[in-house]
Specification:
By secondary structure, this protein is of the alpha+beta class. It has 3 helices and 7 strands, in the order H-H-E-E-H-E-E-E-E-E. A 5-stranded mixed beta barrel has the order 3-4-5-7-6. The protein has a two-stranded antiparallel ribbon with strand order 1-2. The N terminus is likely disordered.
Length: 145
């Protein structure tokens, strides 16, 4: 009887948790789709390196906007630099899978209070080809109201 109650409790908890996880599709826009065109291919040196298609490179240093969820890089309530993801932190184990683009590093002009709700940031796209940094950065970020 205890096993049955435990199984029912787990099942019900799983359903309620699953129902609370938001769908990431509404966060996607033409800019997320464009960022998702980056691939990896074998370079002239024989090493695999990122490849940024011409339409993606054409957006470099241009204003764009991205909607998503804040992923803090440091503890604290206010952040000037953070990652932006189409998925909330609770679903982070699925980042980078399938058609879900990687996160974008955001540099805000003014600090922003952490929120678990979706936000939209205006900024300048920076395609960072330094292998030690994030591939995509959003510079001069401003919260879009």
């Amino acid at each position: 009887m205890k096993k049955l109650l435990f199984t029912i409790l787990l099942f019900c908890t799983g359903i309620s948790v699953q129902a609370q996880l938001p769908d990431h599709t509404p966060m996607m826009n033409k800019y997320w789709d464009l960022l998702n065109t980056r691939t990896i291919k074998k370079g002239t040196s024989g090493l695999y390196e990122p490849y940024f298609p011409p339409p993606l490179m054409a957006a470099n240093k241009k204003p764009i906007y991205l909607s998503g969820y804040m992923v803090p890089l440091k503890t604290g309530a206010v952040h000037k630099t953070f990652l932006l993801s189409v998925l909330p932190v609770a679903q982070c184990q699925f980042c980078g899978e399938g058609d879900i683009p990687e996160m974008v590093e955001v540099f805000m002009e003014e600090p922003l209070k952490f929120t678990s709700k979706p936000i939209t940031i205006d900024g300048i796209l920076n395609i960072n080809q330094d292998p030690d940094g994030a591939a995509f950065q959003l510079l001069k970020g401003k919260l879009k109201k």
